[in-house]
Write a structure and sequence with these properties.
The protein has helices at residues 16-32, 58-69, 90-98, 114-121, 137-151, 169-180, 209-212, 237-244, 248-251, 274-277, 285-316, and strands spanning 47-52, 73-77, 104-109, 125-131, 158-162, 184-188, 204-206, 218-221, 259-261. It is built from 11 helices and 9 strands. The radius of gyration is 20 Å and the shape is globular. The protein is an alpha/beta fold. Helix 1 crosses helix 11 (285-316) and helix 5 crosses helix 6. Helix content is 39%, strand content 14%. The strands form 2 sheets. It has a 5-stranded parallel β-sheet with strand order 7-6-5-8-9. Strands 2-1-3-4 form a 4-stranded parallel β-sheet, with helices on both faces. The relative contact order is 0.16. The protein binds aspartic acid. Aspartic acid is lined by residues 130, 136, 169-170, 223, 225, 263-264. Aspartic acid (ASP) is lined by residues 130, 136, 169-170, 223, 225, 263-264.
Length: 317
């Protein structure tokens, strides 16, 4: 098993082989997570600190659970109550934590690039849990694992990513991962929610759901990210739902066995019909959450193996 990385900052630096390595190990952790006893000692003796500067439900909970199931000492900082609120900079906070010798630092930050910057200042493994509209690598990996399990493969699939592409780190990481694994990616959304320079991504772009969803294998919906919008990107939520909200009629244009995905949190009746989201014959949204824990276990395990190899080499030298 080879995974020669010190951090997991994005999908960009990963090769198709790296992605397969993570997903294969995650498959094993998905099995472990279905057993009564869910413990392994892959991270025994190591310290994991979670720093979430932006709200999170699924990602934070699953990183915590992943670390605990692998036997790490896990601490989640309450960032709202931290010294950041007293004016301390991100780098000072990172250096303070670094002095406590963590082995794994899991960071979410509202600014694109903040997690990369932080990784340069500390000497532990850093995992990006989402930075601004830049990258959310573990989300793309858990989506990939969910697709691979549902479709039996992760190549030559036609995948539509729909909605607020412009503000979405989930879309950015998924476009890269799915492209590296040789899938056809289509982006569907209103022109106001498409990022500029989208042609460079090697994707097809549609502003009409019927056309864009034609014959796709996977439909990935995105949340309208109002916290990153500073003006009128859509006429109204009602109008948006009418044109871009996924319901059974729009889904009928995809392949009959197409799966429906959403990273959460979901706005029912805005980007997706609530009943369709709960339809276990089409929707794999809960499966995505389940795979999130497994993928985070795999990513932290692989980074910890590298930490241990590095430490062993230093002892020998
Ligand atoms: N939970 C995902 C993220 O953190 C998607 C979203 O917030 O819409 O990017």
């Amino acid at each position: 098993m080879s995974f020669a990385h010190s951090h997991l900052l994005g999908i960009d630096p990963l090769s198709p082989g790296d992605i397969t390595t993570i997903l294969d190990l995650a498959d094993q952790y998905a099995d472990l997570n279905r057993r009564d006893i869910k413990h392994s000692d892959a991270l025994a003796g190591l310290t994991q600190i979670n720093m979430f500067f932006e709200n999170s439900t699924r990602t934070q909970a699953s990183f915590e659970l992943a670390g605990q199931r692998l036997g790490a000492d896990v601490m989640s900082m309450a960032m709202q109550a931290s010294s950041i609120k007293k004016g301390e900079t991100l780098i000072d906070t990172a250096l303070t934590l670094n002095a406590m010798h963590p082995d794994l630092l899991v960071v979410r930050h509202p600014h694109s690039g903040a997690v990369d910057l932080l990784a340069q200042k500390v000497n532990c493994a850093v995992l990006n849990a989402g930075d601004g509209r830049h990258e959310h690598p573990t989300q793309a990996l858990l989506d990939a694992l969910t697709i691979r399990q549902a479709k039996g493969r992760l190549h030559r699939l036609s995948i539509a990513i729909c909605g607020d592409i412009a503000h979405s780190r989930v879309a950015r990481s998924n476009i890269q991962l799915l492209g590296k694994m040789e899938n056809r990616v289509r982006l569907i959304g209103p022109p106001t929610l498409m990022p500029s320079g989208i042609d460079a991504f090697g994707v097809e772009v549609f502003d009409d759901m019927t056309e864009g969803l034609h014959d796709v294998d996977v439909v990935m919906m995105l949340r309208l990210q109002r916290e990153r919008m500073d003006g009128g990107f859509i006429p109204s939520e009602r109008e948006y739902y009418h044109r871009y909200g996924l319901d059974t009629e729009k889904l009928s244009h995809a392949k009959p066995d197409a799966i429906v995905m959403h990273p959460g949190p979901m706005n029912r009746g805005v980007e997706i019909d609530g009943e369709l989201a709960d339809d276990i014959n089409r929707s794999v949204i809960q499966k995505q959450v389940e795979m999130g824990v497994a993928v985070r276990m795999a990513a932290m395990d692989l980074l910890a193996r590298n930490l241990r190899t590095k430490a062993a080499r230093e002892v020998i030298v």
